[in-house]
TrEMBL record:
<dbReference type="InterPro" id="IPR011990">
    <property type="entry name" value="TPR-like_helical_dom_sf"/>
</dbReference>
<keyword id="KW-0812">Transmembrane</keyword>
<feature type="region of interest" description="Disordered">
    <location>
        <begin position="323"/>
        <end position="345"/>
    </location>
</feature>
<feature type="coiled-coil region">
    <location>
        <begin position="134"/>
        <end position="168"/>
    </location>
</feature>
<protein>
    <submittedName>
        <fullName>SGT1-like protein</fullName>
    </submittedName>
</protein>
<feature type="transmembrane region" description="Helical">
    <location>
        <begin position="237"/>
        <end position="261"/>
    </location>
</feature>
<keyword id="KW-0472">Membrane</keyword>
<keyword id="KW-0175">Coiled coil</keyword>
<keyword id="KW-1133">Transmembrane helix</keyword>
<dbReference type="InterPro" id="IPR019734">
    <property type="entry name" value="TPR_rpt"/>
</dbReference>
<feature type="compositionally biased region" description="Polar residues">
    <location>
        <begin position="335"/>
        <end position="344"/>
    </location>
</feature>
Length: 394
């Protein structure tokens, strides 16, 4: 009997031939039945999609249908896998369907859909163009091609933005490295938000700088402190407007929103000196101790460990299109080595020095943006501060 014949052997008797034809007919009937059951499961809806895949698989495994009929089975299974979100399996099935029958436009459409879902946009476009060439009136393929081209354009624009952000961040990082400046973990981000240094076209760094009044832990913020500027210039230019706004906030006469909008005008108001004798005191400065001639500026020495280069690059990329870019290729070493015998504590800043001259000090690790502390020699707090009895809150 044909049932006992070895695989691949040729029937030699009429009975064996008849048996094989009968078996083939049974398998063909089963394959068609499995196909119909699969179609019915698809019609029933989402809960039956997995069953549909099983039925189409059983139909394929009968191995007796023609290439064109088997192509339809693979195309149908690709359709269900698309509905299930199994895009890689859908693409594999669609490709097999196309291999068996080049004219199966539905399979080409499903291959294009799966490719687009897998972000294989060049492949998706190629499938669409192939399908339209075979069926020029196919509106579904034309519509899909428009979607693919639109997505390709968006992806190319995004990649260009990511590339530009990476170049800018790496250029800024190189400028910081070349200056011997060290970047550490962030402090006081709740006061500043996400702020970063920027490199201008003249290769000059512009830093956001936080000025903290250590005695009251209130602050002023300089959004653009050019590295070539002296500290004295900015202390002279912090305007009366800042005090004016703080005073009105203190009296609840303006909202926080109004305040946040108003700080953008600070850089334009450079003619007034908040520390002059004629200016009103800061709201918390009851004794008017903070006048220009008695204030001093300090930074905290050796306050942290320099971050590895890759971490600094990630920080510079935050908030940009390149924030999700792969930076693991960067050498994961300390950003700049710091002397092991460095001293800690508060270091007084000479106001006649530029920002760059201070930032490159060997014992200054910048907590992502430079932080400086303002104290008054006239205040009772001053003695505790300079003697090291005060330290920033952790």
């Amino acid at each position: 009997m044909a049932l006992w014949m070895e695989a691949g052997s040729t029937p030699t008797t009429e009975n064996e031939k008849a048996d094989l034809e009968a078996i083939s007919a049974l398998k063909e009937s089963a394959a068609i039945e499995f196909k119909e059951q699969g179609n019915e499961c698809v019609r029933k809806g989402k809960k039956h999609y997995s069953e549909a895949v099983e039925f189409y698989t059983k139909a394929i495994n009968q191995g007796v249908l023609s290439d064109s009929e088997t192509s339809i089975l693979f195309s149908n299974r690709a359709h269900v896998n698309l509905l299930l979100g199994n895009y890689r399996r859908a693409l594999t099935d669609a490709d097999e369907s196309i291999r068996l029958c080049q004219d199966n436009v539905k399979a080409v459409y499903r291959a294009a859909k799966a490719s687009m879902s897998l972000d294989l946009l060049d492949d998706a476009k190629s499938y669409c163009e192939k399908g339209i060439k075979n069926d020029q009136s196919n509106e579904d393929l034309k519509k899909l091609l428009k979607q693919v081209n639109s997505k390709k354009q968006e992806k190319e624009q995004h990649e260009a933005q990511v590339s530009r952000a990476l170049v800018e961040a790496k250029t800024c990082l190189s400028a910081i490295e070349n200056r011997g400046v060290k970047i550490g973990k962030a402090m006081y981000r709740e006061l500043t938000g996400l702020k970063k240094p920027m490199l201008d076209k003249n290769n000059i760094l512009h830093w956001p700088v936080l000025l903290l009044y250590a005695e009251a832990m209130t602050s002023d913020f300089v959004e653009d402190f050019c590295e070539t500027d002296m500290f004295a210039t900015h202390l002279d230019m912090i305007s009366f407007f800042s005090v004016f706004i703080s005073f009105f906030l203190f009296l609840n006469l303006i909202s926080i929103t109004d305040y946040l909008c108003s700080v953008h005008f600070l850089s334009f108001l450079s003619g007034l000196n908040m520390f002059s004798e004629d200016s009103p005191p800061l709201p918390w400065d009851k004794n008017n101790d903070y006048t220009r001639n008695v204030i001093e500026l300090y930074y905290e020495a050796s306050s942290g460990t320099p971050l590895p280069r890759s971490r600094v690059l990630q920080y510079l990329l935050e908030g940009t299109k390149g924030s999700q870019a792969e930076t693991s290729g960067e050498e994961d070493t300390s950003f700049t080595k710091t002397p092991s015998n460095r001293s800690s504590g508060m270091v007084k800043v000479n106001e006649r020095r530029t920002l760059h001259e201070v930032l490159k000090e060997p014992n200054f690790v910048i907590p992502q943006i430079p932080v400086f502390y303002i104290v008054s020699k006239r205040s009772k707090f001053y003695k505790n501060f300079v003697s090291g009895k005060w330290s920033p809150p952790s």
